[in-house]
Amino acid sequence: MNYSGEEIIQIAIGEEKDAIAFYRAAMDNSSSPGVKDLFHFLLHEEEKHLVELEKEILPVFQEAAFTWEDEDVIAAYLRSLGKSGVFMEGPKPKEFAKKNKDPMEVIEFAIGLERKAIIFYQKVEEASSESGKKALRRVIEEEGAHIHKLNELKAGLKKGE
Predict the structure, then answer these.
(1) Sign for the pseudo-dihedral over CA of 131, 70, 139, 85
(2) pLDDT category, 90, cuts 50, 70, 90?
(3) Across all residues in the chain, what is the average pLDDT?
(4) DSSP-based three-state secondary structure for 157
(5) pLDDT value at position 76?
(6) Least crowded by CB within 10 Å, which of 40, 121, 143, 156?
(7) Can you give 82-151 as a three-state secondary structure string?
(8) Is the pTM of this model over 0.90?
(9) How many CB atoms lie within 10 A of CB 75?
(10) How far is CA 61 from the centre of its chain?
């Protein structure tokens, strides 16, 4: 099964919507002001990614001239994900965030989601033309910054801040 560039970005858009739902549920479920604030920040970051994907990146992949450098890499990666979703393994993110009150567990789960998102975007970037790579690099860097912020929060919670 091969995916078009547009289909790949539509999957990414769906994943960002899942991340938004996760951070909203995590924020709503958190009793710690610091944790709640970070989840609120990350919720808005994911909303920005959604806009970037829809307004800047999707049009690049919809262009008739767009070609994958190695479409098989993306198709194989998506097949390995199962139901073509980055976040489909394990519990559904939104449900996990709603049911789990332990901030450390929710933060660890969020770090895992961000790592999976980075891997997904890197696979797409590897197989993209130069115009696609440029647009995706920005999202990858921002997802990495999210992991850094989550790790800082985790360290602060461990210290009892």
Answers:
(1) positive
(2) low
(3) 80
(4) helix
(5) 60
(6) 156
(7) CCCCCCCCCCCHHHHHHHCCCHHHHHHHHHHHHHHHHHHHHHHHHCCCHHHHHHHHHHHHHHHHHHHHHH
(8) no
(9) 16
(10) 18
